[in-house]
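FORM 7B: Structural annotation worksheet

SECTION A. Query
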Amino acid sequence: MLNDKKFIDKIINGFKQFNNYIDNWCTLVRAPDLNIIYSSPLYNKVFNCDSSIIGQQAFIVTNEKHFAEQNEFDKEKIIKQRQKIRTLAVTEYNGRVQPFSLEKTPIINPDSDNVVGIYCYYEKLSFSSLQLQILRSLEIYKYSYEIDIGKYKLTQREKEAIFLFLAGLGSEDIALILAKVEGHNITKSAIDSLFRNQLFIKFEVYSRKHFLISFYI
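SECTION B. Predicted structure
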C-alpha cells in the first residue's frame, strides 16, 4: 500500500523512464495545489523553459485575472469533481503560433482514493485534426512569419486570440470558442478590448487589417 507521496513519486519516476524511449511526449504534472512537479523534455522545449519551473504554478506570461480563473476552474473540475477536461493551449514554437490540444486528467491514488496530481498531455494539432477543420484554421500552417513573435511577450490569452484571428475568426467566434474550451463565459466585448487595448498597442497598429499585415511584412 502506497501513501500519496510515494504513489506520485512512483508515477513521476515512471514518466522519467519514458523520456528514454519517447521523444515526442509533451507532458506536465501538477500537484493538487497546482504547483508543477514534473515536465517532460519536449514540454520544456516547446514552452522554452527548464527544470527551474518545478515548484511554480506558472512561468508563461499570462493575464493575472485569467490565470486565477483558470486555476479555480481546474481545482473545481479536476481536483474536486475528478473530471477530465480538454482545452486549447497556444504558444510560439519553431517561429510560429502553434496550437495544442491539452487534456488534463486527475491522478488518483487507488490506495487512498485521493487526487494526488493533474496529468497534462499536450498534443500538437495537425493537418488532419478535426478541431482545426472546425476552426477553419488549416491555412495557419502555411504561413511563414517574418515577425519575431517572442519579443512581444504575449499573454496566453493573446496567443489564443491571435491564433483564432489568423484562422479567419471574428471576435464573436473567438469568444464562443474560448468560452467553450474553458467552460466559462467570455464576451465579444472582452475580445474586442483585448485587441484594442493590448494587441494593437503591442504591435503598434490601429486596426485589425494592419494587425494582420504586420505578420507578413
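SECTION C. Observations
The beta strands are 26-30, 36-39, 85-93, 96-109, 114-124. The mean pLDDT is 80.

SECTION D. Sign-off
Analyst initials: ____
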